[in-house]
Amino acid sequence: MTTALFCVAGAVAVVASVIVVTSRRIVHAALWLVVALGAVAGCFGALHAEFVALVQILVYVGAIVVLVLFALMLTKAPTNPLPTLTSGRSPFAAAIAAALALLLGTGVVLAFGNEKVDPVPDGSAEAVGTAVFKTWVLPFEVLSVLLLAALIGAIALSQRKKED
Amino acid sequence: MPLILPLLLAVLLFCIGVYGVLARRNAITLLMSFELMLNAVNLNLVAFDAWRLDGLATGQTLAVFVITLAAAEIGLGLAIVLLLFRGHGHVDADAARDLVEQDATEQRKGAAT
Amino acid sequence: MIATAWRVLGVGFSLLVVLTAGLLAGAEPGRSSFLNSSIDGLTLGFAVRTDDLTVLLLAVVGVVATCVQVYSLGYLHERPASYHALVALFTAAMVTVVVADSLFLLLIGWEVMGACSYLLIGHYWERRDARSGAVKAFLMTRLGDVGFLFGIFVLGVGAGTFRISELDPAELSSGVLTTGTLLLLVGVVGKSAQVPLQTWLPDAMPGPSPVSALIHAATMVAAGVFLIARLYDLFAASATTLTVLAIVASVTMLFAALCAMAAVEVKRVLAWSTVSQLAIMFAGLSLGTSDGRHAALFHLVTHAAFKGLLFLCAGVLLHQIGSAAFVVLRRYTRRGRLRKALPVTFATMTVGLAALAGVPGFAGFFSKDTVVEAAWHHAQDGSGLGWVVLVSVCLTAALTAFYCLRLWLWVFFRTPALAGGIGAFEDDDPMADLDEPDTSKLRDAPWVMLSPLVLLAIASVVLGYADGVHLNWVVGLVTTVLVLLGALPAYSLWSRGADPRPVVLEREFGVDPLYHRLFAVPARWLARLTVAGDRDVIGAYVRATGRTGTLVSQGFRRMQTGNVQTYLTAAVVGVVAIAVLAGVIGS
């Protein structure tokens, strides 16, 4: 059951992300990104990581993609197809990506080809919450400071100077 | 479920992200490709967590952290893209070549002044 | 202020030397050594000694140096006063040589003299000929000094001591003796400008005239004569060395006298005459007898007086007229002005030339006669060497008379020949200025310059009688006849207004071009080869390194596109490549 679910979600994720990197319309690419990220969230669910899946949907789909769409709007991105959106290097880039995929795939297959995952049946949100606030509390706090720094940095970067 | 499935999916997503980063022109699409790569990493983390079951939920916790980082990254990245747009009037990663090696004569001129 | 201090110091120092000589005269010979250190049974150190020879040379050096210093006050008052300091140093170096009882102390003085002569000959450093003359003098004397240094080593190690007074020819093996003295002779030949190292002395003439006087009369060239006199026991014990010395001296005196006959510049004539007169001293020394040594030293003293005088006179000509070339002087002489405008110079120069030529009654006559007499006695003892020396000194006497009279007549007298003999010297120089110069402002030099002339002129006469007159009438008659034989052609040529100068003599037997071809040209070729090797072989590597770096970096510059995606692509390619490599190596 979970394997089938995972396969479907994975196939959707792959197709959607291929469209994300090949589409000639930027806004379409952003929307296909939503599909890809959602499918990855489904994969998380299939792996019984419901908490991560929810965070994925909340943060990525809810916040990041919206942010991206805002940025597209602010940079006056055209909605019509742009033939030059992919540069002339794309065959070369594809070759490199394929080589990398071959390399990584071979490595993964050789290393973990016979391993099985035996997911815990019940939800893991409680375990994650316990871990975050017990074991990982210090990194968590550091991360919150990082977020604050990123917030301030983004404000400082995008602020218009007075004379502009 | 074989462990190899999520791992292969992660590899595919990551390489698609690499392709996007290398081939796309628009800076915002570059950022989208980054997100794809980060997701591949997350998938790895979660898959290994499910396989290891160390009781601390290390992989999932880290995945959550990475998502947080991704949020921070995209915020800063988009701020930079906006700056780029303000300065150049476009967000073309190809055309933003301010780091290019200048001609030797220009350089000497620059040094003289 | 400092200049005055130097001048006072210079004059004072030379007076001090005279005073020392006076105090030491008649005193018991003394020796003293200091700073001795013994190395492996060999004692190295410094030592001084005073004896008759020292006193004699000190007196000569002191008097001539005093004259030169006083004269220079007038002659060089517009030049840097360091000149006076250098002359004082020069004198001090000669004094060191004279009082040294250690071969090393002698070497120090010897080398300092070489350095001083370089600096003083090149005093007019702005003139090209002065610079090249200084370099030439330095190189030539250095060449001789190499032999000198090794001679010191051979003698010192052979005898086990470097004290001159302890060198005993009886204790030395004949091989060491001959080798050592021959090597020393090389240094002497270089210092005293004998054949084959004679060419530097005439080319040292661009130096200031007082310096020429000092070099030619008292220091430098006299040091060679002094050295042989000092080590006379050693030299006399080696027949080979004496033969070489006699041959060198005979060749040199004739060679130099012949060159002097064709020279057309007063100082050059005097320079060649110095070489010739030094050779006469060496000829006396080469006899190997105490008579010969005495004659040589007597000639050294009288020569110091009249040659110093002559150079100072030439200096007056240079100072008052601006040139000592015959062609320039003749322009004044044709008006009959030179003699009348420079009466003191004329008179003293006449005395000097008479002494040089060996006119009876003047100092040169007596000293030369003693050499001839010593050679005559030696020859009568059945020595072939004595005959060689006798004949060559007699011939030289005639030649000397010729060039002295030639110099005197052409410089100071109008020739009775047609048109005043125009063409005798001007032929060489078609651009010569034949216009009459403005002679009204020609004056004799100031008295600060003339008083040394007078003093030395008196000495040039009196010194001949200082040794006690013991004239050998036969020899005196013969040399007088020889002087007349030499003087007559000079007079008749002058009265006819002709001055034939054979090309071979004018070119001074082509020695300079020969040396140039033999040594300078190959050296230059070697230098070119070195330069080429440096530039085209070693430099090629250096340049290639630079160019390779530039080329490589230009390649890297191409990669520096400024496009972030290119960089990223390269990074990813690199990562993939490294991963593949790691896999290949790991498997």
TrEMBL record, chain A:
Presence of the UniProt keyword Acyltransferase in the record: no
EC nos: 7.1.1.-
Annotated membrane topology: Multi-pass membrane protein
UniProt superkingdom: Bacteria
Chemical reaction(s) catalysed: a quinone + NADH + 5 H(+)(in) = a quinol + NAD(+) + 4 H(+)(out)
Record keyword S-adenosyl-L-methionine present: no
Key words, A-Z: Cell membrane, Membrane, NAD, Quinone, Transmembrane, Transmembrane helix
Location in or out of the cell: Cell membrane
Enzyme category, top tier: translocase
Role summary: NDH-1 shuttles electrons from NADH, via FMN and iron-sulfur (Fe-S) centers, to quinones in the respiratory chain. Couples the redox reaction to proton translocation (for every two electrons transferred, four hydrogen ions are translocated across the cytoplasmic membrane), and thus conserves the redox energy in a proton gradient.
Record-stated family: Belongs to the complex I subunit 6 family.
Full protein name: NADH-quinone oxidoreductase subunit J
Automatic annotation (TrEMBL), chain B:
Ranges that cross the membrane: 62-85
GO molecular-function term, one example from the UniProt record: NADH dehydrogenase (quinone) (non-electrogenic) activity
UniProt-listed Enzyme Commission number(s): 7.1.1.-
Enzyme class: translocase
GO cellular component: NADH dehydrogenase complex; plasma membrane
Catalytic activity, as annotated: a quinone + NADH + 5 H(+)(in) = a quinol + NAD(+) + 4 H(+)(out)
Pfam families, A to Z: Oxidored_q2
Main location (coarse class): membrane
Topology in membrane: Multi-pass membrane protein
Keywords: Cell membrane, Membrane, NAD, Oxidoreductase, Quinone, Translocase, Transmembrane, Transmembrane helix, Transport
Subcellular location: Cell membrane; Membrane
GO BP: ATP synthesis coupled electron transport
HAMAP family for the chain: NDH1_NuoK
Function: NDH-1 shuttles electrons from NADH, via FMN and iron-sulfur (Fe-S) centers, to quinones in the respiratory chain. The immediate electron acceptor for the enzyme in this species is believed to be a menaquinone. Couples the redox reaction to proton translocation (for every two electrons transferred, four hydrogen ions are translocated across the cytoplasmic membrane), and thus conserves the redox energy in a proton gradient.
Assembly behavior: NDH-1 is composed of 14 different subunits. Subunits NuoA, H, J, K, L, M, N constitute the membrane sector of the complex.
Annotated family: Belongs to the complex I subunit 4L family.
Protein name per Swiss-Prot or TrEMBL: NADH-quinone oxidoreductase subunit K
Source organism: Kribbella turkmenica
Phylogenetic lineage: Bacteria, Bacillati, Actinomycetota, Actinomycetes, Propionibacteriales
Automatic annotation (TrEMBL), chain C:
Cell location: Endomembrane system; Membrane
Protein's name in the database: NADH-quinone oxidoreductase subunit L
NCBIfam families, A to Z: NDH_I_L
Primary location recorded for the protein, binned into one broad class: membrane
GO molecular function: NADH dehydrogenase (ubiquinone) activity; NADH dehydrogenase activity
Enzyme Commission code(s) on record: 1.6.5.-
Gene Ontology terms: cellular component: endomembrane system; membrane
Membrane topology: Multi-pass membrane protein
Alphabetical keyword list: Membrane, Oxidoreductase, Transmembrane, Transmembrane helix
Pfam short name (any one): Proton_antipo_M
Lineage: Bacteria, Bacillati, Actinomycetota, Actinomycetes, Propionibacteriales
Example of a GO biological process term: ATP synthesis coupled electron transport
Residue span, NADH:quinone oxidoreductase/Mrp antiporter transmembrane domain: 100-380
InterPro entries: NADHpl_OxRdtase_5_subgr, ND/Mrp_TM, NU5C-like, Proton_antipo_N
Ranges of residues in domain NADH-Ubiquinone oxidoreductase (complex I) chain 5 N-terminal: 39-80
